Amino acid sequence: MNRLGGKVAIVSGAGGGIGSAICHRLALEGSSIICVDINENTLNETVHSINSNNGKSIALARDVSEEQTAEMAVQLATEKLGGLDILVNNAVYDLPLAPLTEISLEDWRRTMDVNLNSAFLMSKHCIPKMDEYGGGSIIHIASQLGRTARPGRPWYCAAKAGLINLAKAMALDHAAQNIRVNSLSPGPVETNRYLSNFSSSSEAQKTSNTLLDRLGKPDEIAAGVAFLASDDASFMTGSDLLIDGGYTVP
C-alpha cells in the first residue's frame, strides 16, 4: 500500500489509541507525519514505533488548544518534511459522565478548546500552506454521538456535532483550493480510554450497542482515515464517514 507516498500529514491526539493507529496506518501508506499530543510519553511511543519500522514521523509535544501549537506543527511539516497535504484533527479531552448542570464553566471551556476549537486552529494555519502546495485533505474525527446522544455526555455530543458541520462549512469554503474536508465518525472503539470505564474488556464489549455486537478496533478507524486522505476519496468532500458497527441504525 502506497496511496500516500510522498504526502505529509499532521495528526493531533497522536498518542491515543485511535490517534496512534491513524499515524501508523498513514505511515504504512507512505506518508510522513507530524505527530502532536500533550502526553509526551504516549506520543514518543507512537513516533518511536513508526520510525523503528522504516516510517518517518516527528513528535510535537504540545497542547492543541494553543494557537502556537498549530503554527509550530505547520512549520515542522513544511521545513522538516517538505510539504503539507493531510490534516487529521483527532485530539480529545474527556470529562466524567454528568448532566450539563453539573459541569463547571472551566471544564466546559476546556473540552471545547481541545475537542472543537483545536480543529479550528489547526485548520486555520494548515489551509494556507495546503493551498500553496496545490490542495489537500482535512479530516475531523467526530463521533456517532455527533448524530445521536447518550446520557451524561452533553459536552462531547455538542463538540462532535460541531465537527461534523464544521467539515461541511469548510468544504464549501475551500473546494476551489482543491482542499477536501470531511469528518469521520467512529462508534465505540476498544481503546484504553474506553476500557478504563469498565472492570474488564469483556464488560466493555457488552456495552457496545452495535449491530455487530462488539466494539470497533482502532485499526478499523485508521483505515477510514487513510481512505479519506487518499486519492481514492478524490470525489468526496463535506461528508461524514460513519464507522460505527451499526450503532446509529436502530
Structure summarized in a few sentences:
This protein is of the alpha/beta class and 250 residues long. The protein is built from 8 helices and 7 strands; from the N terminus they run βαβαβαβαβαβαααβ.
Distance between the termini: 35 Å
Structural class: alpha/beta
The fraction of residues in strands falls at 15-25%
CATH superfamily grouping? NAD(P)-binding Rossmann-like Domain
Largest sheet: 7 strands, parallel
Q: Tally the helices: what do you get? A: 8
How many domain regions? Answer: 1
The radius of gyration is 17 Å
Topology pattern, helix = H, strand = E: EHEHEHEHEHEHHHE
Known CATH architecture: 3-Layer(aba) Sandwich
C-alpha geometry: globular
CATH top level?
Alpha Beta
Number of strands: 7
Oligomer: single chain
What would the CATH topology be?
Rossmann fold
Main-sheet strand order equals: 3-2-1-4-5-6-7
- Low-confidence spans: pLDDT under 50, at least 5 residues? none
Q: What is the percent of helical residues?
A: 40-55%
Which helices and strands, and how do they pair?
Layout: E1 8-12, H1 17-28, E2 32-37, H2 40-52, E3 57-61, H3 67-80, E4 86-89, H4 105-132, E5 136-141, H5 154-174, E6 179-186, H6 192-195, H7 201-205, H8 218-229, E7 240-243
Parallel strand pairs: 1-2, 1-4, 2-3, 4-5, 5-6, 6-7
Structural descriptors:
8 helices, alpha/beta
